[in-house]
Structures are given as structure tokens and as C-alpha cells.
Amino acid sequence: MDSQSVRSLALYSSAGLVVAYCVNKLLNSKTNLPYPPGPRPLPILGNSRQIPASSPWFTYHEWAQQYGPIVHLKAIGEHILVINSAKVADDLLEKRSNIYSDRPDIPMIQLMGWDFNIGFMKYGDKWRKYRRLMHHLAAAIMMASVYGYDIQPVNDSFVSLVRAAVERLGESVFPGAVAVNKFPWLRHFPGWLPGFGFQKFCADTRVINTRMKEVPYEFAKHNMLEGTDTTSVVARILISGKHDDNVELIQGVAGLAFAAGADTTVSAISTFFMAMALYPEVQAKAQRELTAVVGAHRLPEISDRQRLPYVDAVYREVLRWRPVLPLSVSHATSKDDVYDGYFIPKGTQVVANIWSMCHDESIYAEPDKFKPERFLDDDGGLVNDPRMNILAYGHGRRICVGRHMADETVWAVIASVLHVYEIGKVKDLSGNDIDIVVRFSGGIVSHPEPFPCSITPRSENEKQLVEGTIAAVYDI
């Protein structure tokens, strides 16, 4: 064999090896795996026209019945994975949290001034810094402890600020909700152009968010300097001097502590009142347990909780029946992944459909009914079933940092109200019950729409107990 033939053979052999290597890589590449099933996307737009701007969890739940526990969507080239199963959420968001703990880029968050919110921060140093301080503030979920401020019973200005800010947030973060989230360069166009009204919306929201952070902070700072407040969390941080060089951090974390605690807590408690008016037999059963365990001369305390399993079941059912956050804040994959034979690319938005998980008929029979008994075993104790864990506080490394305080706060309110009040339907002039329509808002925090109900002391003894507690708290 001459040298030319040897060179040709070597060349062909090398080319063959390269081709074989490429074919092998192609055959074994996980990108050859299919995406999870989902509705057929349209060219360019994908599924964006099929995703509702309000209450998308209902549509996701319907798709789950057709396509299974994970549903893949595309919105103008963006991959979205909707998780409708508690098991899949545990498999991915908990067990693979190293991959599923990032957040997607949502330009509207920065444009509206919500980028101080730890829930939307990218996984990194800034998130860790905020998370550390949030843990420090977790013992202060309400204004009285965060800022030393007592909320007014009606039309409180601080509460109104929070409600306005959160409502605007809910209108802007769902996948496909706003075009600028997919095309960030749109932010550079002036707001007076047709179709660019989001610019004014964002500017107005930034003003609201700035006030939400600065006004209560200045209130607490003023009281600290006057010597009238040394116990609120903000006052203690200012006195310690540990964060003198980072006022923005204190304002952001403290503002977020109140925004997260106030709006979600109000929603959960409002849902509780609706459920008690609709299910008087549940209310009566919980009240019998409270009377037997607590007695008539004091309010229930956290130390009573283990001896009040039915009340605890009522609390759990409130969070399951109508979840405060029907959809989790979107996670994002930090690298490619494969699950159950399906390919999930890096950068995929991952949304946990909490509403669907809480209405899974394979776990919760008759999910639309309010039945605390589903959380109790045959002996009347709380069931030990991981499938029925409380899902309201999120998953993995992104789980709510204030969940323990939120849990105790909502439970304590539910137990105390049940102990001293009777909640019922309002009667019309003819003495007939006025029906309550179960209808909830469709934003990021889902609130019951306004409904009528009556709230009366269970007896003269309970009335005196409430009046005595108020007098002790307010020193009157």
C-alpha cells in the first residue's frame, strides 16, 4: 500500500470516527428526549394566547387532567413547566433544589420597583443576604413588632399601600401576562406610544412600593429617636448599628416582612370566616373541642395546639380549600434536567400549581367541600401522610422564610375567633339567610370577594373575655 493510500485510509478512518462520535452524541443526547406533554403551541406565540391573565391555575388544572401531572408550555419561545402534583413538586423542587431554586428574569419586577422582594431574586449572594436578615425578622410578622405601629381598624393607610402594591404585582408576573417580560428591550420605548401603557403603570407602582418601604421605616426611626420605641425589630436594628451602611436593605426586608405577612394572613383569615359561615357544623365541632380543652375563662394559646387536633385540622383545611397563593412564584432551572423520560431545558420557568395539588381527588375526596376530618385519623389525631403536608408556604430552598410565624399567627387567630365568636350567614328583612357566593380574586394572592356574614359573641362570658383582653392589650 503506497503512502497516498495510507493517507486516504487514515483520513477516511478519522472522518468515520468523527461521524460515529457525533452520531453517538446525538443518539445519547438528552435533547433528543421529548418535552413533557402539553397543549399544541402556535407558531411564534406558543401557548401564550391560551394562558389566562387571571386565575390561570384553573386552566392548568384542566390541562393536568388531559396531559398528566407535568404540563409543558411555550410562550414566545420561553419554556414553562407547570407542576400539578405534590409528588412531582417534592421530586423536583425539594429533592433537586440545587437545580430548581433559581428565579426567572421578569423585567416587570424591576420596572415596578419590586426587585427588593426576596421571593423574586435570582439565586445568589444578594438573595442569601436578604434571606439571612429575613430569618432574623421572622419573629416579627406584623406591624406592631416590625415597626412598632398599631394598625387602624378601618382604612389604615399602610395596609392600603400594601394592598395596592400586591394587587399590581399580581397583574404582572404570571407567565405570558406582559409582553415586556419576554422582550425586555420594550422598556426603552416611551410610555406615550400606543401599547406602552405599562410604562405609566410601572412608574406609579414604583412610587407605591417606595412609600411602602420608606413611610413605615421613617415612622419607626422617628419613634426610636424620640425614645418611644426601642422594641420593634426596625428600632432594634437601628440601635444596634449593624446595618447603618445599608438603609435600603433594612427598608426592603422590613417592608417585605409586612407585605408578605399582612396580605396573605388577611386572605387566609377571610377564607376562614367564609368557611365557618358556610359550614356551621364544622364551627360547632371546633368550639366543643375548645370549650373542653381551654375552658371559658381564657383564650387559647399556642401551648394548647397539640391538644386541639380538630382546630388544627380546620386551619389546614382553610389553607387547602382555597390556597392563599394558588400558584407558587415561578422557579427556574439552572441547568438542563431530565424527569420521567422528559427533557426540561435550562432556564425553564417552573410553576407549582398549589390549587391543583390541594384539589387532587386521589388524595382529597370531594375536594371542593370543606372537610377538616380529612386531616384526622380514626383516633381523632392528625394524620401522618406526607402527601397532605401544608403546601401554602412553598417548596425547597425557596420555602417561605416566615412560615413558622405565619403558621402560628393564622392558627392563633382561628382558634381565638372560634372560641369567642359565632360566625353565621346574614339574614334579610324576612329572616331568611342571604346566600354566600364562593368567589375569589384571580391575582397572585387570592382573596375572597366581599361577602356578608354575621359575627357575634357566643355568650356574655365570651363577650367579657374579649373586652378584658382588649383592655389589657391597650391599657384601657
TrEMBL record:
Name of one Pfam family that matches:
p450
> What SUPFAM superfamilies does UniProt report for this protein, alphabetically?
Cytochrome P450
Family annotation (Gene3D superfamilies): Cytochrome P450
Residues noted as binding heme in the record, renumbered to the chain = C400
Record carries keyword Zinc: no
Example GO molecular function: heme binding
Q: What name does this protein carry? A: Cytochrome P450
